[in-house]
Design a protein that fits this description.
The chain contains eleven helices and eleven strands. By secondary structure, the protein is α+β, with helices and mostly antiparallel strands. The chain has three domains: 95 residues, no CATH class; 106 residues, 2-Layer Sandwich (D-amino Acid Aminotransferase, Chain A, domain 1), CATH 3.30.470; 81 residues, no CATH class. Strands 5-4-3-6-7-8 form a six-stranded mixed sheet. A five-stranded mixed sheet has the order 1-11-10-2-9.
Length: 335
């Protein structure tokens, strides 16, 4: 069995740093940008559930995935593999593909619109052919064909607004270009439009994911290099001033850095990761695992913020661990 990971989606400033060049010499990144500095983007609503995927092999063999690993009905993630196993025949149209999406619904997350829908469902946002994984299918109409007739599967549509980003613009120009995105995300945080339209449920949304759709920038590699996410205030893992910004946030001290990166969203994500089957619970026996996960996650995801703050991970590690441990113990004792 081969695990086919869904890539981690970075923030806008991470992508900006990755392809940052002098505006007059952007051709140094010609290969990365496929010969043009302007990338057209469409967005899909980012759902706050748990990442999942289904590999459909010839002969009806099905393999399920979480974000990190292959899962089974016996070793599951929020019941996703059990649900797929009970509906094996409904995946026949997706043979030779891996279907990626978000497993959402009651009990998977909390305090969001998707946690209030009547039952758990699979919201699909992409697919790849198993025999040609560099191809990436993101168009909703094409995805709908692959999952046609499966009543527990929904295909995420494009968000109503799109944007073109010229990556050779100066930081000041880019800040103006992306300003509308911050307004869109605030509106989605106030009420998730897809959840309301699909299930009649109003409530908090997480944000948007922006997919490159200009012809030179299609395919899995370009998606991995150029896609970015924008989260609302309640779901940020880093307490940035705005959902999207050109540069990494800087902190004036170790204490300020800890406050910047240990948001409720990150801490709750860590608690979910160490809970049984990915359902958020608090158990004092998992305190060590939780602190280890949070520490590793911060080290992996906040290198830009550390650099902007003039700090190293070694300098902040103890303060991070102490605050994470205190937070988790308080939650566990309160249950």
């Amino acid at each position: 069995m081969t695990f086919m990971a869904w890539p981690e989606i970075e923030g806008f400033h991470n992508i900006r740093k990755f392809i940052r060049v002098d505006p007059g010499e952007w051709w140094h990144k010609r290969e990365l940008l496929a010969g043009t500095s302007t990338v057209s983007y469409k967005a899909k609503v980012k759902l706050h559930g748990t990442n999942a995927a289904v590999q459909v092999h010839p002969g009806g063999k099905i393999i399920c995935q979480s974000r990190e690993s292959i899962i089974t009905p016996e070793k599951d993630n929020a019941g996703f593999a059990r649900w797929v196993d009970s509906n094996k025949d409904l995946w026949r149209d997706a043979e030779d593909y891996i279907i990626y999406g978000e497993w959402i619904g009651p009990g998977i997350q909390k305090n969001v619109a998707v946690s209030q829908i009547p039952k758990k469902v699979f919201a699909v946002f992409a697919a790849r052919p198993l025999n040609n994984p560099e191809v990436l299918i993101v168009e909703p109409d094409e995805l709908s064909i692959l999952v046609y007739g499966n009543p527990g599967v929904y295909v995420l549509p494009w968000y109503e607004k799109s944007i073109d980003i010229d990556w050779k613009q100066s930081d000041e120009e880019l800040t103006k270009t992306i300003a509308p995105i911050n307004e869109w995300v605030l509106a989605i945080e106030a009420n998730d439009p897809w959840v309301e339209k699909t299930f009649g449920v109003k409530g908090t949304g997480e944000g948007l994911v922006f997919y490159p759709v200009s012809t030179p920038h299609l395919g899995f590699e370009h998606f991995t290099n150029l896609t970015f996410k924008a989260k609302g205030e309640k779901h940020k893992n880093i307490a940035t001033a705005k959902p999207v910004q050109v540069s990494a946030e800087a902190a004036a001290s170790i204490e300020a850095f800890v406050g910047l990166v240990l948001t409720d969203a990150r801490l709750e994500q860590g608690a979910t990761k160490v809970s049984a089957e990915g359902a958020l619970t608090y158990d004092m026996k998992n305190t060590g695992k939780f602190v280890t996960w949070v520490s590793a996650d911060v080290e992996k995801e906040t290198q830009d913020e550390l650099a902007a703050s003039g700090l190293t991970f070694k300098e902040v590690q103890k303060a991070l661990s102490d605050k994470a441990r205190a937070w988790y113990l308080a939650k566990a004792k309160g249950m």
